[in-house]
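Section 5: illustrative case.
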């Protein structure tokens, strides 16, 4: 019944592309977007409904793209966690974005949250689940029954996103530029 929800949506062509090139399709938060290169004085990444526009004065498109995607997912997690922490009646100190291989997110005892930047390639429901999971650790630094109740109060559909991550998460780690 749920098998259709777990269709692997990451295009095979980008899992191990020979190099980043114009026209490559990347899944950003559940939508496929095409890469466009622009030569510009400023280094920046603009994400539209259909495109990822990478602007740079040089040829460092991959480096600019990765930095831009990290900034984008950082802002998404910042906004999401701010909202969810408020709903849970707690707060966090800061958010770090890393390229982790063994954890999608973490919460320190100091109230610092950390997330893998590659979650930008996952559907929004997965990003929301990870935010709810780590924010819930601000109240409960364990995986007890009461912790999972807190997660469910923030994201009632978390189990579907958690399952998606179990089935598809390794594919997110294989995306290279």
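Designed sequence:
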């Amino acid at each position: 019944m749920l098998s259709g929800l777990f269709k692997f949506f990451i295009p095979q062509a980008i899992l191990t592309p020979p190099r980043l090139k114009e026209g490559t399709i990347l899944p950003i938060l559940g939508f496929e977007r095409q890469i466009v290169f622009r030569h510009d004085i400023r280094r920046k990444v603009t994400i539209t409904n259909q495109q990822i526009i990478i602007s740079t004065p040089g040829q460092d498109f991959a480096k600019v793209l990765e930095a831009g995607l990290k900034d984008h997912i950082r802002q998404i997690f910042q906004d999401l966690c701010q909202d969810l922490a408020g709903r849970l009646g707690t707060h966090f100190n800061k958010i770090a974005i890393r390229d982790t291989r063994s954890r999608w997110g973490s919460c320190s005892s100091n109230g610092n949250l950390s997330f893998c930047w590659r979650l930008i390639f996952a559907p929004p429901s997965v990003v929301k689940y990870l935010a709810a999971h780590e924010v819930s650790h601000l109240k409960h630094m364990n995986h007890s029954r009461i912790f999972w109740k807190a997660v469910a109060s923030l994201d009632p559909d978390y189990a579907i996103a958690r399952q998606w991550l179990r089935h598809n998460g390794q594919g997110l780690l294989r995306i290279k530029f």
